[in-house]
Design brief:
The complex is a heterodimer. Chain A has a 5-stranded antiparallel sheet, with no helix packed on it. The longest helix of chain A is centred in the last third of the chain and has 16 residues. Chain A is elongated. Chain A is an alpha+beta fold. A 5-stranded parallel sheet of chain B has the order 2-1-7-8-9. The C terminus of chain B is likely disordered. Chain B contains 17 helices and 11 strands. Chain B has a domain of 130 residues: 3-Layer(aba) Sandwich (Rossmann fold). The radius of gyration of chain B is 21 Å and the shape is globular. The chains are: A alpha+beta, B alpha/beta. The interface between A and B is large, with 34 and 57 residues. The structure holds iron/sulfur cluster.
């Protein structure tokens, strides 16, 4: 039930609602409880009609690249 | 889709499995790892992860599905409210098929004429209240810390807009007190916990300190195969080195401090109360009720819901399954009487329930360990 899905913000209105794109599908989510400043193009994790987290893209890329490296070099 | 495919990369998964096999050989002894999130249970089944692991690594499912841990008495209260005159009862879909006392469900009373509606967000329920000022709209507030802030934020909005015909039946539960009970349980020796990714977005890493104090591993983990395999590898690393810490595998979702704003909204609207968990019993401080300032939005106060003498479904082992004491195949009703089409207990209803996951993905007897 705690399913969260990542989506990219494509618009934000004056009531603090955003339209997000999830692989081509659009959904409206409320931005009232997300903890950081979010803007167009940001990825957010959404749950039950609210954005609850802004994805740190650089960190995500860095961690994935690091994992790939460990595996490619058979350190793992 | 972004942030999904990368975490299903077969090469990464293979590499992580090699790592897990290496660590399992090194540790030698049997290791029990519990996932306490229904989404993990479903993903582990779906991607066949249990079958890929070395034989000394066992995955147990814990009380991680909010629908499953909801007590029969709480579902009785939902049915009571849904049957009231002039009420539109709204809920997330999973709840509709969970049997209350006597095997009755929300779905059944809807067929009998009650106005029961499925919503995807509490905001949709609030929208219904605004559209139907002549009706009382009750929303079933269910879920862990992932969901509770969204209900709290909706109640704040309802209060600000002075909406008078909207109330919440709060059966929310919070994870840390239940986790503490599992850690303290003398019957259950769990070496490490795959901690729930989306609950942790809100509560952060500190909430799992008691696990570490008890010398068990804790890794906050995401929901794709690469996430789960990496989470398991990180748990084994902690066990191998005996260096226990709350680690975050799911870094794209969880910051160590969690989501403070969401916690503040949750704390403003709700206070903690003793709540009854199916299978575990009453746990102090594990439930959430609207505070005095939000009393007008509390369905239990608006409608004076009576105390029910509730009975759990006869012969259902959900309680033991939720604590990792039994697996579904040890329930005599599993797959014979109890199926997803005709669920006897909540663990078979929700797609995240352990019984439903086993039914769907572990049809082969050999695999149901
Ligand atoms: S198989 Fe059905 S009856 Fe048995 S524990 Fe699971 S939900 Fe309950």
């Amino acid at each position: 039930m705690c399913i969260g899905f990542p989506g990219r913000i494509i618009s934000i209105d004056e009531n603090n609602f955003a339209v997000i794109d999830i692989g081509g599908t659009h959904r409206e989510v409320c931005l009232d409880i997300v903890d950081e400043d979010v803007g167009l193009g940001d990825y957010v994790i959404c749950h039950a009609g609210y954005a609850i987290h802004k994805v740190d893209e650089d960190l995500a890329k860095e961690k994935l690249a690091f994992l790939k490296e460990l595996i490619d070099h058979e350190i793992y | 889709m972004k942030y999904i495919d990368e975490y299903r990369d077969p090469e990464l998964a293979k590499g992580l499995l090699r790592r897990i096999e290496h660590l399992a050989r090194k540790i030698q002894k049997n290791i029990a790892i519990m996932e306490i999130c229904g989404s993990h249970t479903a993903a582990i089944g779906r991607f066949g992860i249990r079958e890929l692991l070395p034989s000394n690594i066992r995955l147990l499912s814990g009380p991680g599905c909010p629908v499953c841990v909801t007590s029969t008495g709480e579902i009785d209260a939902a049915l009571y409210l849904a049957k009231q005159e002039n009420v539109i009862f709204t809920s997330f879909g999973d709840m509709l098929r969970v049997p209350a006392s006597g095997g009755i469900t929300l779905q059944m009373i809807r067929a009998g004429g009650a106005d029961v509606r499925v919503v995807l967000s509490p905001l949709d329920a609030l929208g219904l209240a605004e559209a139907h000022p002549e009706m009382d709209v009750v929303f079933m507030g269910i879920g862990f810390e992932t969901t509770a802030p969204t209900i709290a934020a909706t109640l704040k909005t309802a209060k600000a807009r002075q909406i008078r015909n909207f109330t919440v039946l709060s059966v929310h539960k919070i994870i840390p007190p239940a986790l503490q009970i599992l850690v303290d349980s003398p019957d259950l020796r769990i070496d490490g916990f795959l901690c729930p990714g989306h609950v942790s977005i809100i509560i952060g890493a500190d909430a799992y300190r008691p696990v570490i104090r008890a010398q068990r591993a804790a890794v906050i983990t995401g929901f794709e195969p690469v996430d789960i395999l990496q989470g398991i590898a990180m748990i084994l690393e902690q066990i191998d080195s005996r260096q226990f810490e709350v680690a975050i595998q799911y870094t794209r979702g969880v910051r160590p401090e969690g989501n403070k704003k969401a916690r503040e909204v949750m704390e403003e609207v709700f206070e903690t109360v003793t709540a009854k968990w199916r299978g575990i019993g009453w746990i102090p401080g594990s439930g959430l009720n609207p505070r005095e300032a939000y009393r007008d939005f509390d369905a239990r106060r608006r409608f004076v819901v009576p105390e029910f003498v509730s009975e759990d479904p006869k012969g259902c082992s959900c309680g033991d399954i939720l604590c990792g004491i039994k697996t579904p195949k040890e329930c005599p009703l599993f797959r014979t009487v109890c199926t997803p089409v005709n669920p006897i207990g909540p663990c078979m209803v929700s797609s995240e329930g352990t019984c439903a996951a086993y039914y769907k993905y572990h049809l082969n007897e050999k695999e149901t360990g």
